[in-house]
Design goal:
two-stranded parallel ribbon, 2 domains, 312 residues, TIM Barrel, six-stranded parallel sheet, elongated, 11 helices
Length: 312
């Protein structure tokens, strides 16, 4: 480095003389004021541009962060909504059916809901008899069509019609216990009353027909009601098998006789889509139209491919 403020006379070489002249020239040269202001202005402008650039970058980064936060928030909200909905099962491709294991095939074959080739069976059932006038007429119609039925009999009706009950058994029909008294108020007052009444009727039936399926019963009015749960449990524990119905002719829906066409139509309506029919009818007094409608009901069910069976 050269000492500009030192004694120039100390430098005796040629290079020293050149430097001397350069320094003297710089000392004598003056910078115009305008150039100073221009330089200062340029410097200030560069500083401003630099500051603007830094601020812009900060804004861009901040906006990007804010957008990322919004995206994350929306994603979390969507996840919460999806989690609150019930999960849907994965879609099964139509061209890739689920393979059925051998044991599953066996179960499906035994299940009437999955076996479309199941035999169609119809079980004609008659409640509240035997009746001295109408039951023989029912038996004649059944004999004409070579059809067997199930008769759910009551003790009070048997007392004066023991010969008709015996005929039912001799002609191959099934006998079921429908209680002795058929009195709703008494029967459903307690489980013990219900069981005792069944036993009383069982003894009477045995005295007339001898051996029969004494475990087959039907509740008066059916076992459907919730308040009969104790009765259902009691008879099951006693070894009984109670049977309701899933089809009917509607002959007990009014006190007066129901027209024949309505009885037939009711069977058609309530039998739709069922392979196994347990059909409720009555052979008690006042059910003359039931006997009259019976041939049409049998013919309709035969045309639909049903085979007639007894509940035994």
């Amino acid at each position: 480095m050269w000492d500009i403020g030192g004694d120039i006379n100390k430098h005796k070489t040629g290079d020293g003389q050149k430097m001397k002249r350069l320094i003297l020239s710089l000392r004598e040269k003056k910078i115009p004021p305008g150039a100073i202001w221009v330089g200062a202005g340029v410097t200030i402008l560069l500083l401003i541009l630099l500051g603007v650039r830094l601020y812009s970058n900060k804004v861009v980064v901040t906006a990007a962060n804010k957008e990322e936060i919004n995206i994350n928030t929306e994603t979390k909200h969507e996840d919460n909504v999806n989690n609150s909905l019930p999960k849907q099962p994965e879609e099964v491709k139509k061209d890739e059916p689920k393979e059925i294991k051998p044991e599953e095939k066996k179960e499906q074959k035994a299940n009437p809901q999955t076996n479309t080739n199941e035999e169609k069976s119809a079980y004609l059932t008659f409640d509240d008899g035997p009746n001295g006038k109408l039951t023989p007429q029912v038996l004649e119609v059944l004999k004409q069509y070579n059809v067997k039925a199930t008769f759910f009999v009551t003790g009070k009706a048997i007392e004066n019609n023991k010969d008709i009950l015996l005929r039912e058994k001799q002609e191959g029909h099934a006998i079921g216990n429908h209680t002795y008294c058929h009195d709703y108020k008494y029967l459903y007052s307690s489980t013990s009353a219900f069981l005792q009444d069944l036993a009383k009727n069982d003894a009477l039936i045995r005295s007339v027909v001898g051996d029969y399926n004494n475990k087959l019963i039907r509740f008066p009015g059916g076992s459907f009601d919730k308040n009969k749960s104790a009765m259902r449990q009691a008879v099951t524990e006693a070894g009984y098998h109670y049977v309701d119905w899933n089809c009917l002719n509607g002959d007990a829906e009014t006190a007066s006789a129901v027209p024949v066409e309505k009885l037939v139509e009711k069977v058609k309506q309530t039998s739709q889509g069922k392979n196994r029919l347990v059909i409720l009818m009555h052979d008690a007094g006042g059910k003359e139209t039931t006997v009259q409608a019976l041939p049409q009901i049998i013919e309709y069910l035969k045309a639909q491919g049903y085979n007639f069976k007894t509940l035994e």
